[in-house]
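TEACHING EXERCISE
Course module: macromolecular assemblies
Task: Read the component lines below, then compare them to the predicted structure of the full complex.
Student: A.B.
Group: 4
Components provided:
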Amino acid sequence: MRIAVNTGGGDAPGLNAVIRAVVLSAINEGWEVYGIRDGFGGLLRDSEYNGEGVVPLTAEIVTGITHTGGTILGTSNRGNPMKWPQEQPDGTVIEIDRSDEIIEEFRKRGLDCLISIGGDGSLAIARRLRDRGLPVIGIPKTIDNDLGSTVTTFGFLTAVETATDAIDKLHTTAESHKRTFVVEVMGRHSGWIALFAGVAGTADVILIPEIPYSMEKVFEKVRWRYEVGREFAVVVVAEGAKEIGGKASFIEEAKPGQEARYGGLAEKIAHTIEENCDVETRSLVLGHLQRGGQPISYDRLLALRFGAAAIELVKRGDFGSMVSLDPPDVRSVPLGEALAKRKNVPVDGDVVRTARALGISFGD
Ligand code: F6P
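Instructor-supplied answer key:
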């Protein structure tokens, strides 16, 4: 067996641990593993990599990487081979489908199957390659925790840890200066990071995409804090949160080969709070800090389990499926099922209810 592995989409702490587990488990079976660089880039543009767009992965190469952040293979969230941006003679850019090239390259190199580690975007690509006959297995990855059919993904709790640490640190300076802080965390469509870090870090307000908010309610909570003598407040916002009847805040519209970029929400909210509540307010965007650094032990273990489970699926010939966490086990689900529905925060779930019981406002 000659197994190919790639990492696609935004990076997440734990990717290297998955790669290590895939490589060592495959070697255990007497198989060979090849890493595709930068998502699908190494297959599509091998000449740009001096013929090293696809590299053999040995036990030596994956030594000492379980605890490291990032991905030794590189990744891209601009490299969808089915939506590849191509400039036209008139200067406009259109999206073209380059999946034929992927399949051709894959076969030319004598690869037998692809283990694709990615979020909804990359796994949708993997699924379409499967539909076109490529033996594919998916491993779910996202710090946003919004992939369906798996209880969680590696990287999510590491991101929550980073965000909670930041909220803890802001508390002390907020209190010293009697200020309100608005902290923006990642989460375009779902507010898992904001919710978990906000509750663990004792935020006063948490705004998430699943619960549209009213600024009046946010003002009420902030004013109340000062009135009762607490005189500081911490507001945690997911980047994709929306006001009731409003839309999300973008810094860049979608263009060929690139999704829209969210951002700017914390600054806007901080500004309106300062104007309406007459309290000094600052904003902070945690951004890509949440994707970096060492995975916490839970995420390392989950990543290693996912990698080893993917090789078990190869052994069973269970192609077109994705490994999934279904405690206490790691199982497999059809890729189509995993991609069918985004996993949003249940608005009446116990974490939201816990937050409300603690007096945390969702601005609703
Ligand atoms: O999907 C993960 C994610 O971290 C989102 O929460 C965030 O909006 C996006 O990636 C940012 O990606 P980029 O690397 O393009 O800035």
